Amino acid sequence: MPTDCLFRDDSYLKTCEARVIAVTGQGGIVLDRTIFYATSGGQPGDTGTLTTVEGAVVPIATAVFTDAAKSEIAHLPAPGAPALEVGDTVTAAVDWDRRYARMRMHTALHLLSAVLPYAVTGGSVGEAESRLDFDIPEAGLDKDDITAKVNAMIAGNAAVTHRWISDAELEANPGLVKTMSVKPPMGTGRVRLIEIAGLDLQPCGGTHVKNVGEIGKVQVTQIEKKGKQNRRVRLALV
Ligand SMILES: [Zn+2]
């Protein structure tokens, strides 16, 4: 059963009411709707709690998709958590400080990819530090230079918006694909586009802040050589 992923339309939701619609073989709790981001795209699943109307609290260690199509989310309880049953009503709450830090970091990675317009081969979002791997033929990247460019973008306070577009609309607007930094996946019917006004446009399912100014100051902490053509750039919130 597909989960209604409320975080996709409003990443600032901290709590929501939901109903347990399934419990997986591994004890994962499937809700009809959720604000928990599920592990994907290098961003870890959210931690938090599910609280029953009777007041029982189930700590959630992470959230994951149960299917390749990424339509259903299971909330994985911490060991020893009280059991929930199908039909239970719960209040879901994410650990907001951690999630918000990840939103800031994730959005900062979009800016990093705008400063370094090369193919991205990997990435990871953490609360304090994140990284992107770029396919760059030669070195010569300067930490301070990249830091200054990303911080200048942050200081511009550009709005971050999302919109859904159908495969058909995308095909009818080839210019859109040209301006995107990442080619959208086709064939799923619709694509979620994230636009940072004047700076970046790409398909992305992650959680972002509304305005790049919310990121605050960042710093490139390390640039590592990972293989012949790969450079790993680490970025931290400061
Ligand atoms: Zn994103």
Oligomeric form: single chain
Q: Kindly name the structural category.
A: alpha+beta
Poorly predicted runs of 5 or more residues: none
End-to-end Cα distance, whole Å, is 41 Å
Helix content: 10-25%
Mean pLDDT equals 93
Shape: globular
Contiguous helical run count: 4
Radius of gyration: 19 Å
**Which strand-content bin applies to the residues?**
35-45%
Ligand kinds: zinc ion
Series of H and E elements: EEEEEEEEHEEHEHHEEEE
User: What's the total count of β strands?
Assistant: 15
Strand order of the largest sheet: 2-3-7-6-5-8
Largest sheet: 6 strands, antiparallel, barrel
Task: Describe the structure in brief.
The chain has 238 residues and is an alpha+beta fold.
Q: What would you note in describing this structure?
A:
The protein is α+β, with helices and mostly antiparallel strands. It has helices at residues 96-115, 143-155, 167-172, 174-179, and strands at residues 4-5, 15-23, 29-31, 33-34, 48-52, 57-65, 73-77, 89-94, 119-124, 129-135, 160-166, 190-196, 200-203, 218-225, 230-237. The strands form 4 sheets. A 6-stranded antiparallel β-barrel has the order 2-3-7-6-5-8. It has a 4-stranded antiparallel beta sheet with strand order 9-10-15-14, covered by helices on one side. Helix 1 packs across helix 2. The longest helix is centred in the middle third of the chain and has 20 residues, at 96-115. Residues 106, 110, 194, 204, 206, 208 line the site of zinc ion.
